[in-house]
Every structure is written in structure tokens, then in C-alpha cells.
Q: What sequence folds into this?
């Protein structure tokens, strides 16, 4: 029997809004990604240290926490993990800081499901992309 768990892109959603986490997880699960969720930085670090995560959707404005600090942690300790920033509050300065800190993409909430799926597909590891 073939182990399909290795064939799926593994995504971590970090968002303090439970409804946003559930909605995004549902969209990505439906699109056949393996999904983990975290409500804060500590939960995210625990998942990152215990799972092989390919991609993180990171809400930059976590309650009482700065998502850029988590982004810096990921760049230092999990540099192979792609990071897509999610935020409802966008500014040119925030976008610039996110990209300077290693984010691969920046999505403004609320995002369309197709936009989220396309971004996840575009940033998954090369070995997990469909071959033509």
C-alpha cells in the first residue's frame, strides 16, 4: 500500500481568529492539503518543531503578538518553510517588512478561496508539484 501522506503539501495556519482558521482549513482540506492550525505563536512553534511543515499561512496581526517575530523565527529555524502573510490591515510598510523578513506572498483578507489555493499550490515544494 502506498503512503499518500508524503505526497500532500503540509500547511500550518496561524490565526488568532477561530472562524478564520476553520474557514481556511476547510478550503485547504477540500483542495487536498494536509492542514494543521495554531491560534498563537507558541502553538505555531510547537507544530513547527514537531511536524514537517511545507507552508505557513500567517496572520501578521495575532492578538497581543507580532507575526513578524514568528516570521523571523521561521526564517532562522525553519528556512525551508514557505510563508504567506494574511492580513486585513495592509500598509506598504508592513508589506515591505514582511518581504524583507522572508515572506513569499502577501494576501489581504478576506481572500477568495481560489486565491488561497493558487497561492498554496504555487509555494509548495517542487517535489510535491504535479509533473507534466
A:
Amino acid at each position: 500500500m502506498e503512503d499518500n501522506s508524503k505526497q500532500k503539501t503540509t500547511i500550518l495556519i496561524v490565526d488568532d481568529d477561530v472562524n478564520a482558521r476553520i474557514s481556511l482549513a476547510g478550503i485547504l482540506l477540500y483542495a487536498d492539503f494536509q492542514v494543521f492550525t495554531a491560534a498563537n505563536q507558541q502553538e505555531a512553534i510547537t507544530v513547527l518543531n514537531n511536524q514537517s511543515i511545507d507552508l505557513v499561512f500567517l496572520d501578521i496581526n495575532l492578538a497581543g503578538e507580532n507575526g513578524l517575530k514568528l516570521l523571523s523565527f521561521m526564517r532562522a529555524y525553519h528556512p525551508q518553510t514557505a510563508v504567506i502573510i494574511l492580513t486585513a490591515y495592509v500598509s506598504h510598510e508592513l508589506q515591505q517588512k514582511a518581504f524583507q523578513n522572508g515572506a513569499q506572498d502577501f494576501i489581504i483578507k478576506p481572500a477568495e478561496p481560489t486565491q488561497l489555493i493558487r497561492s498554496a499550490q504555487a509555494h509548495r515544494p517542487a517535489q510535491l508539484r504535479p509533473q507534466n
Q: What stands out?
A: Residues 1-5 have pLDDT under 50 and may be disordered.
